[in-house]
Amino acid sequence: MGPKKKGKGSKLARMTEEEKARYLQHRAAIEEEARRRKQQLIATFMKNKLKKEEAFTRLNLAKINQQWRQILRGIKSQELRRELEGMIRTVLAYQPKYLLTHSGSLGVESLAHIPLLTVYGQVEVRISAR
Questions:
Q1: pLDDT tens per residue, range 83-111
Q2: CB 98 within 8 A of CB 128
């Protein structure tokens, strides 16, 4: 076994009062510097963490806004589709009456120039050009 290490008590006991004061002052300065460095390190870490969190917040907010706009576009599209289908039903309801009332005076050849409205590639509706 090696020799025993002497404790701080024996080190301080061998010092004079002036050396003790200087030593304790030196130790206090070292501890204060370590405490200051630790606080600075924590502050830097928290600043970096806050900056990253703000970036994630902006990104997530942008994603939420994009999804919200997409939902609103879908709702608007459904509303327009329903409105268009209602208009088509109205046109289909009145179209045969128009064709019957004017077919005698117009003739088949004159009906050929009436523009066609195609909806979803399935329904063809003749609309009068007034």
A1: 999 998 888 877 766 666 655 555 545 54
A2: yes
The alpha carbon dihedral of 94, 100, 103, 104 has a sign of: negative
What are the DSSP E strand ranges found in the chain? 116-119, 123-126
* Distance in angstroms (rounded) separating the CA atoms of residues 72 and 81: 14
Report pLDDT digits (tens) over 43-57: 999 999 999 999 999
Q: How many CA atoms lie within 13 A of 71 on its CB side?
A: 6
Q: Note the pTM of the prediction, 2 decimals.
A: 0.46
> What is the DSSP track for 48-60?
HHHHHHHHHHHHH
Give the Cα separation of 58 and 64 in Å (integer): 10
**Using CA atoms, how far apart are residues 123 and 121, in angstroms rounded to an integer?**
6
Residue type, 10: S
